[in-house]
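Ticket #4471: structure output looks truncated?

Reporter: J.K.
Steps to reproduce: submitted the chain below (246 residues) through the standard prediction queue, then opened the result file.
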Amino acid sequence: MSGRFSILYSDDSLLVIDKPAGVLSIPDRYDPRAPVASEMLEAEYGHLYPVHRIDKDTTGVLVYARSESAHRLLNDQFASHLVIKQYLALVKGEPLEERWTVDVPLRADGDRLHRTVVDASHGKAACTRFQVLERFRGFALVLALPETGRTHQIRVHLAASGLPLVADPLYGDGEPLLLSRIKRGWRGDSFEERPLIARTALHAWKISFIHPDDLLLPASDRRVLEIEAPEPRDFRAATAQLRKLR
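Returned output as attached by the reporter:
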């Protein structure tokens, strides 16, 4: 643990953290006062080079390079779609299929709310595969496998599927998940009730890539890293309650 971050992997070339909700991956001009993970870690780990990003309220695996060469080689893997990313998404609604793919172009900063929008004419190619992991009454736990890395891609593609993320303020209703709203006959104190989950219900669960130090080695000698971030407490609490109500 380094301050508020769990370190999932570290060596001279890489730093992989389990990012909590409420922290930016890199500085954001729309949210200049929010804490930034890279800035909080650099006193201990030196300059960090971002190779991808996850949203402020998304938790989970976040990779930084610790050298220019590692940064370049990791960027090459991302650009070539060799990095496998897996996300857990808690969605509002009941999927019609067990597996589906959304392949629609997206344009970032497409409206006055700075949202990403579907734009067949001017958008960039974006593809996400989805798989239902668990079904609940009115909700589902979904595995998201993005094949491209557009801003808010998973959030927009789920909303386009009619399955917005729980508590997503931009692409859903933004309402926190409350036990009082999903449990019949709930008799708690509404003034003291705490949400099961109150932020966008998306978790960067796993990432897999070739260690940048090994890319020049024969394929048989290369280390493939698969790094996993455990589900955060609010995610576990929400799914545990939903299981009881099936």
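Triage note (M.O.): checked the attachment and the full token line is present. Residues 68-79 form the longest helix (12 residues).
Status: closed, working as intended.
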